[in-house]
Amino acid sequence: MDIMAFLICLDNCIDKTTLSRLATIVDAMLSMTGRVTMLGISRWTEQGGSYRTIQRFFNTSITWYKINWFLIRKALTGMKEILLIADETVVTKSGKHTFGVDRFFSSILNKPVSSISFFSLSLLDVQNETSYSIMTEQIEKEKKNTENKGKKKKAKKKKNSSKKAPKGRKKGSKNKDKKNVALSSYHLWAQGLIKKVLNLIGAEIELRIFVFDGAFGNNESLQMVKQCGLELISKLRYDSALWFPYTGQYAGRGAYKKYGEKLDYTNISKKHLVSSETKGNVRTDIYNIQLWHKNFPELLNIVVIKKTNIMTNKVAHVVLFSSDLELHWNKIITYYRLRFQIEFNFRDAKQHWGLEDFMNIKEKPVYNGANLSMFMVNLSQILLQNQSVGLLSMNDLKTWFRGHKYMRTIIKLLPKDTDQTIIQELQNELSEIGRINLVKNAA
Question: Three-class SS string for the chain?
Fold first, then answer.
């Protein structure tokens, strides 16, 4: 597999010098062992890959989301179902000098840690269950104003038992338009990233659904996504108050009633049951209902997944929702489950491609280091789709390239009249040493 053959599609979005440096770095990263730092990469590069060259690359302004799109476009062309998914990942960092370092919550450690955080957008191929990262941006926390810290005095509440607060709404208050919400700075920033991706892709791929975890399970996030022309799939709190639409008769005065009975998660009517399955001691019941949430302006397509332990009678449930009322309940579950593919991207980037290893501290090198790791995840997935050499995992891929790098070094030491059959046998043997999933007689 010639790496340059896979990277030649990038010549429209980066200059030749940067492309040449990228090819050199990619070749080194595919075969190297140890920590993926600038120094580590330079030790595995061949001619033209000095440490200074690596430094120049990491300090170059690169539009990574265009590079990722040109790389993955061919793999996604012709696919029927493509989703836009997103998530955040945290990279632990010690010290105080790394750009954007702060205390971010780590779901693995279950506590805030000194780290930097990245927001990543990916295109998900539903048919092949594969996620391709297209944009990764660093999250910066807003700096709090500490000028008046310590000067604020606690307001003393006057107790007056004789006067009670009047019932009902305050005089002059008006109904708020739940569709026209003021987006927070974080939502405006995320919305800008989504629009960038949509503008880049254009009409080449039809994107209709955006999937995010429970952090976007609120009306502000829903309106932000709908303003981009997409439908949202996310998760609500397990105890969210949901209401059936009112079906009774008009009282004859006042406004028409909107909310009917409140949903009781412990006693959902069987007429809303769409699937029931028992595996071992666990029964899984799935309910699909269109319900109101008082913080949302429109009906929501709700899917409640209820699991019951038959032996202990313990019950747990998850509440998924979509703004698309026509979307089938099975697709809501499938799409939300496939959102986890982006977590595998983060895992591979940290384990194999240096997302946890880079030592850069300045803004541009940090940005390039993170995006290079995510780019390598995309490239490695495309390389693994080439079944001619029988590679089944990231470790197999790196072992295969490492064997070929060793073979190139050996060939330089062999006599020029060495039989090509011997060279081919050596190459095959070297590329198989250390492979986990060994496929014999691979072409």
Answer: CCHHHHHHHHCCCCCHHHHHHHHHHHHHHHHCCCCCCHHHHHHHCCCCCCHHHHHHHHCCCCCHHHHHHHHHHHHHCCCCCEEEEEEEEEEECCCCCCCCCEEEEECCCCEEEEEEEEEEEEEEECCCCEEEEEEEEEECCCCCCCCCCCCCCCCCCCCCCCCCCCCCCCCCCCCCCCCCCCCCHHHHHHHHHHHHHHHHHCCCCCCCEEECCHHHCCHHHHHHHHCCCCEEEEEECCCCCEEEECCCCCCCCCCCCCEEEECCCCCCCHHHEEEEEEECCEEEEEEEEEEEECCCCCCEEEEEEEEEECCCCCEEEEEEEECCCCCCHHHHHHHHHHCCHHHHHHHHHHHCCCCCCCCCCCHHHHHHHHHHHHHHHHHHHHHHCCHHHCCCCHHHHHHHHHHHHHHHHHHHHCCCCCCHHHHHHHHHHHHHCCCCCCCCCCC
Burial class (CB in 10 A: 0-12, 13-18, 19+), 264: exposed
Report the candidate in 16, 90, 27, 86 with the shortest Cα–Cα distance to residue 379: 27
Rounded distance between C-alpha atoms, residue 320 and residue 304, angstroms: 6
Q: Which of 391, 424, 379, 405 has the alpha carbon at shortest distance from 3?
A: 379
Q: Is the pLDDT of residue 319 over 80?
A: yes
pTM confidence score: 0.87
Domain boundaries, the chain: 3-142+182-212+339-385, 242-248+257-323, 388-443
Arithmetic mean of pLDDT over the chain: 89
Backbone angles phi, psi at 148, to 5 degrees: -95, 15
> Model confidence over 336-348: pLDDT tens digits?
999 999 999 999 9
Both structure tokens of 237 = 């709190």
Return the exposure string of 334-359: e unless at least 16 CB atoms fall within 10 Å of the residue's CB, then b.
ebbebbebbeebbebbbebbbbebbe
Alpha-carbon distance of 391 to 52, in angstroms, equals 33
Q: And the tokens for 333?
A: 């579950």
Residue with tokens 């070749």: 27
Q: Residue 287 is encoded by which pair of tokens?
A: 């309910």
pLDDT in tens, 168-184: 778 777 778 888 899 99
In the prediction, which pLDDT does 240 show? 95
The Cβ of residue 116 has, within 10 Å, a number of other Cβ atoms equal to 20
Place of tokens 């038959």: 310
